[in-house]
Fold this protein.
Amino acid sequence: MRMSKLAQAIRDAAKKLLEEKKVDLVVGFAKGSLPLRSTPCFIRKPEEAAALTWDYTCENNLANYLRKREGKVAVVAKGCDARSIVTLIQENQINRDNLYVIGVPCSGMIDRFKVEEAVDGREVLEVEDKGDALVLKGKGFAREVKLSDLCHDTCKVCRHGNPVIYDMLAGEPVPAKPEDTFADVAAFEALSPAERRAALAAEFSRCIRCYACRNACPMCYCTECFVDCSTPVWIKKTPDVDDNIMFQAGRVFHSAGRCADCGACDRACPMGINLRGMTRKMVKEVKELFGHEAGVSLDEKPALSEFKADDPQPFLVKE
Amino acid sequence: MIIAKNDLPGLLDKLMSEYEVYAPVKEGAYSLYKKIKSGSEACFGYVNSKIPPKGVLFPQSEKLFCYNMTGEGAKLEECIDSGKKVVFGIRPCDAKSLLLLDNVFNNDKFRDPYYLTRRENTLLVGMACLEPAGTCFCTSMGTGPFDKAGLDIMLTDIGDAYLVEPVSEKGGALAAGLGLSAAGEEQKAAAAKARDSAEVACRVNIEGLKARLDANFYDPIWERFHEKCLGCAACTYSCPTCHCFDIVDEAVDCNGCRVRNWDSCMFPLFTLHGSGHNPRPGGKERMRQRVMHKFKYFVDNFNATACVGCGRCIKNCPVNLDIREILADIQGEGRSDK
Ligand code: SF4
Ligand code: SF4
Ligand code: SF4
Ligand code: SF4
């Protein structure tokens, strides 16, 4: 279905939900202030629903705005948002009875860094949509790029573009995709420890510790994050490479079995650091060790919340 | 004076024998100001750097002093950086931001030796903006693409060369020592033409803004702005005028350093009291602080607005929260209702 039709379906649904007082709030996306950007928006009146939109720029994970909400809330959820929602329901952060999910099948979101790279850092002022390609235009240039070449790497391997839970579905389901081979993680694992260290250091030397990654992640909701704790000081506040890596390593361990590989952290990072390199390593470990994928089903217990007497434990004793 | 583009790397190399030279360096799709090791690293074909060069004078993390405790007592070593520096290719908005920061680090109550020593030893060579970005609104904030305020030298791109205009006495002395050839009338005309064609299209109306902020601290308008905000520091850490810092001791056993790190009013730890009380407990109060500080408190304190319209906070925000829209909303222009 065309993006504009999807957007209309979302607007209609939101308006109706608010008119019929089924919800007090709709969390969705509005048109952003820059080319190829949309922005999370909060709609409380039926007449405001016209501001809602939908296209390949709706990259933020809106599950992040749903924890511990008062009242009834509807959310516009693409595949990865829906998986995060499932996990948050399981973790008692969202009350399913108070949530209405407007599911949107998703075929991928645009990576702003790929756009910038495609035009060599120049400023895109206007975009022409040609269906499966975009023409990126700026002062003295116009470049046509295939939509699939601009897609986030997350979206390329995502098998759950169709929301796993929803109360209504806007649009037609997207076709199924093959199993994720984790080729990127395997390539990292194939490196020697020194090479792995160097690769991580190269990425995380650019970190400015703005914590956009942590704050964009729906799963990072501790009242006090370990990086903010001052008694004791778990890691230095100074952004040096080792502590930057420690910060990410801590974050990744804390979201083991909970991370839906939505890429929200990676998308939020203003420095364009590859955060999925680390998060996906953990996603792969959890899948291999426990056969668990976060947020795929409400009935499946999260990997680290379940204990079986015959759990394999080769990391403890030889089996 | 004029310098051919081909000669620029050599000139930077020459400067490097006497100064630490900071210049924009390409990092993938964006640029960052870095201390260069060779003149050929510098790359001036950028709109503006990802993070402002304010860190050359006010580093994200700096050691104030180091200490060592022994049986004989404490030994202190102060870390004042008096190295001679040149920031080469700084944009006019970023130079202007340093004039604003001077108010903070050098006033009746405080003189910050760390910042001021660096400031005294740093020359700013500016690069006029011939292609301002769509997010630039510098001309609304009392500066502009050719503003020479705060610069020692101004460069203007005229195709295969730069027109070199000394601005300050120090800049004049530096330029005189470089053995540059004089600019002809034709080259001066080319620079003037380039300037005329550059345009800052975006305008932000701040007329009367301060008066509104004086009166609207309790206005319900603040309930909405922060709603989508994540509370990160992508905006404040990329802002050339933000200057909040946090001082911590980083020590192992008896050896340590007192370190000053950038802080951000968008963080939950900002102004968290020892008692556990926080006067800015949530997103609403934090966003209000960010806006109030830039457009009211700074004006109260120093009679200037703490924003130079560089647009970085707009580009870097992960949820596209646009300060221009907040300001328009406060001004009753309803930009975000579009
Ligand atoms: S978002 Fe990027 S720069 Fe900011 S703390 Fe995370 S990794 Fe570092
Ligand atoms: S507030 Fe935004 S636009 Fe203004 S100087 Fe700071 S980063 Fe630039
Ligand atoms: S209070 Fe906020 S807006 Fe003001 S300088 Fe500090 S970080 Fe920037
Ligand atoms: S960058 Fe955006 S999300 Fe982060 S604190 Fe600033 S306004 Fe909020």
Summary: The longest strand of chain A covers residues 25-31. Residues B 238-241, 294, 307-313, 323 surround iron/sulfur cluster (ligand 2) (CB under 6 Å).
